[in-house]
Q: What sequence folds into this?
């Protein structure tokens, strides 16, 4: 079974802190994604990566950055956390090109910024 | 704009009955992939069913089936013999040609009643 793990299920941070969310997948998937999930808004893509060291902005990249130094690991960084970044963050991975295959999701990290 | 619309924010169904969740989308592409994902309360999102747009035949997975109407850009999910374990948020998604991105709807919260 494909397994996608995220470093924390729940995280509480203060405004202005630098926050790291880590995601690891164990199925050698080329593609990895970070989404945020908010009620009534569905899943919104923050960043994705289709290869090591390659990244592309999604629909809402402002305030976030990412790092992918190894194929299995994709990190989301909040450079200076703000209260409007309080949300559920989902990591996902997939293989293949151009969305032909399904994504596998991690359990999510519920981040609260106070 | 590329959108996926789920017009039913919440639904409920009695155990053992059938329910249909609607999904419509906007695209000018001829080939793409459509997905239904299930997110049970506090659990990971998982794939329910996948449909390739160039295939006429509707996909089926056990009690789950889709009604794919390509011309109408409609992709509804039918759950037969509903079970308590089907209680979840359901997301419709589609791939985007030429990119690695997926577009998600805002979700339908389904509650199966005993």
A:
């Amino acid at each position: 079974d494909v397994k996608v793990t995220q470093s924390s299920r729940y995280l509480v941070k203060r405004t202005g802190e630098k926050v790291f969310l880590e995601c690891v997948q164990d199925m050698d998937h080329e593609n990895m994604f970070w989404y945020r999930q908010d009620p009534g808004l569905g899943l919104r893509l923050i960043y994705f990566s289709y290869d090591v060291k390659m990244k592309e902005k999604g629909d809402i990249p402002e305030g976030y950055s990412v790092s992918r130094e190894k194929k299995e690991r994709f990190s989301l960084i909040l450079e200076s956390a703000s209260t409007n970044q309080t949300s559920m963050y989902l990591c996902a991975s997939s293989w293949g090109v151009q969305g032909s295959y399904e994504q596998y999701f991690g359990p999510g990290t519920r981040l609260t910024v106070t | 704009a590329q959108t996926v619309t789920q017009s039913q924010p919440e639904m409920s169904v009695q155990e053992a009955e059938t329910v249909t969740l609607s999904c419509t989308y906007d695209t000018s592409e001829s080939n793409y992939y459509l997905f239904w994902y299930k997110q049970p309360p506090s659990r990971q999102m998982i794939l329910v069913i996948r449909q390739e747009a160039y295939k006429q035949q509707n996909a089926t997975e056990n009690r789950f089936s889709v009604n794919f109407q390509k011309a109408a850009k409609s992709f509804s999910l039918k759950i037969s013999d509903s079970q308590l374990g089907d209680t979840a948020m359901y997301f419709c998604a589609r791939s985007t040609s030429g990119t690695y991105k997926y577009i998600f709807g805002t979700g339908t919260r389904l509650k199966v009643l005993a």
Notes: Chain B has a mean pLDDT of 93. Residues 83 and 92 of chain B are 20 Å apart (CA to CA).
